[in-house]
Design goal:
Length: 121
């Protein structure tokens, strides 16, 4: 499936699932739940996008995997904010190192907590 065919939440989930494993999709569900919860305390993503989070955030992040060679070394997400796209890539490709860099302490702690909730990344 191509990202241009993602039209709704169900097709976004399918797109992500085709690029990863069932275990990764479960971890992404946990990440998304934590993101929704934390977004009530600090503005991480636009509130209306939470209704279409699989389309707007997870599939959008996952599409990077279709553009970068599997042989790529470390991924770096500078200014990761809510962990997008870095944490999504880390969850989907646990065999690849991903470095998330965030200068704002509050968000830095948040991304670490998301990573722990989602499992080892």
């Amino acid at each position: 499936m191509n990202i241009s065919r993602v039209r709704d939440e169900q097709s976004a989930r399918s797109f992500v699932k085709n690029l990863s494993s069932a275990e990764a999709v479960e971890k992404l569900d946990l990440f998304l739940a934590a993101l929704r919860e934390e977004n009530t305390r600090q503005n991480l993503v636009a509130k209306p996008t939470l209704e279409i989070a699989w389309q707007r955030h997870l599939a959008d992040s996952a599409q990077l995997l279709t553009h970068v060679s599997r042989e790529t070394g470390m991924w770096m997400d500078l200014g990761t904010g809510a962990g997008l796209p870095g944490l999504v890539i880390a969850i989907m490709r646990p065999d690849r190192p991903v470095m998330l860099v965030e200068s704002r302490r509050r968000r830095d702690r948040l991304v670490g907590a998301h990573g722990r909730r989602a499992g080892p990344v």
